[in-house]
Specification:
By secondary structure, the protein is mostly beta strands. The protein has a single domain, classed as Neuraminidase (6 Propeller). The protein has one helix at 251-258, and strands at 2-7, 12-13, 16-17, 20-21, 25-26, 30-35, 47-53, 56-61, 66-70, 77-82, 91-97, 100-105, 110-114, 121-126, 140-146, 151-156, 164-175, 178-190, 196-204, 209-217, 222-230, 243-246, 266-271, 277-281, 300-305. The strands form 6 sheets. An 8-stranded mixed sheet has the order 11-12-13-14-18-17-16-15, with no helix packed on it. The protein has a 5-stranded antiparallel sheet with strand order 1-6-25-24-23, with no helix packed on it.
Length: 308
Amino acid sequence: MMKKINFLLFSLFSISIAHAQLQEIRLTSYEISSITLPSELNNEVSISGMKYFNGNLYLASERCPEIFVVNPADGKVKVKLQLSMPHRFENEAITSYGNHLYIVSESDVAVYEANPTTAALREIQTSIPLPPKSKHGDGMEGIAGNEKQHKMYLLRERNNERTNAEIYTFNVTKKNGTTYLDFLSKIDIPLESNDWRYSDICFDQINNRLLCLKSFSGKKTRRHFIEAFDLDSEGSLIKGSLHQISSSPFSSLQKQFGDDGFSVNMEGLTMDDEGNIYVVSDNTSGKAHCNRKSKEKTLLLRLREEKR
């Protein structure tokens, strides 16, 4: 069951972020639909990452060792993968590469490879240590796989000073049959203030770009934007190419869905094979009790491009 909202985006956009200038680009109109989820996803599951994989949406719980495999057509949970995570885990994002899923855990600063059938788990080595969680609670927040150009991207939501977000690019290699991430580059994204952060990324294979979910959280306001970095022929982010593809501040959605008991803390971002964009909310703050009903419901949205 879906609830549709006509959401016309601005036709032209140009804005400056700190010292970086977003490209001027023609924006697209999207129809936004909410996908009804079963009641178990309204428990304190704290969904923080999402990946479209093999026709399904894989929703990673931040604090429960589970991945919910959801049918995007009707929102029903087809299966739950039970993960044997280390004691100190905090799963913030999920992606796929080849036949496996990859999860980034913020608290133990690690990347894990998961078998999507058996849920078998193993830690993946990186050529450089990933930055630990800051005193403000900011850490590794997103992960995106790019099989076409053999890349993996990791997102740090904010640095220690809370002035920049960071995206790390790694080459994906195999050593003795084991996946290995070899550091290639890092790019800083200036933030207007510490009320802003980036909460997820995903690879757009249709347009060869990296989508970024940007979030603002004020005292009474939450706003969200979808931006994109263009990639070069090798899969590296092109500096200065960051641009907004969707104005979507979600202000109207906040009023509509927030008043209906949904969390509008949008945390996960993914795209399907047809170019539809999905965004999901994290419905719990702090320590989660996975089987206890949350004060807020999980919100799953689909953005479908309107044909001109």
